[in-house]
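BTB domain-containing protein
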Amino acid sequence: MEDGSKDSDETPSKKAFDFSEGIDSELYDGVLQVEGCLFHVMKGHLARHSDYFRNLFFKNYADSKKEIITLEEVVPADAFQHFLELISGGNRLNDEVIEEVLKISQMWFAEVPLEKAKEYLLKNSNLVPMEKFIIAEKYNFSDLKTALFSNVQTVADMNALLPNQEVSDFEPDTITLIANRLLEISGIPRPIPVAPVAQAPAEIVPVAPDRAREALQREIRRRLQEISRHLDPNLLRDN
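Structure:
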């Protein structure tokens, strides 16, 4: 039986994390067996990153008491090594393991490895566009799909990106991306951009001088009438 091993061809800057029994016993409290390899882990750390391991270690009493817990799912040992590294701050992802890492990360509800795998596909992967697209469609990586379609400049590019299947079988957001990009390539953007229409300032209608004068006179007469109603009639007669 082998220990979780280090890849022999790793450069010092990308050295594999060591999960073998040779590590300090204070740094692990559980042992997992994957494809005959033993990985020494901290149960709490795995549980924080995955509901699957939270249930395995802390809710499944029978398994949690075993000295060595065998993962029954079909999990390649090298993919599990990369999974452990991703949740421990490392990242040696490569195109050979990316799909298996994605598979177990989704199966175990582990968000951190999923996000790091998506970032790898966006920035570092050498997979051809169609291979990236198939992965993005499978795991609903919208950012990756948008990036892939942004690089489509011709119908030939679109043909190289899409696998041979019915368009209706794609996810709804993918169908929208296909339609919009083909319209843009064809010079038929939808919706058609509409230039904003400048509104003329409201017209200020000048008041004719005569009308203004008449209004002023009416106001003066009204005020004089108000004053006269409060005056003593005898005073008016004396004057």
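The two ends are 130 Å apart (CA to CA).
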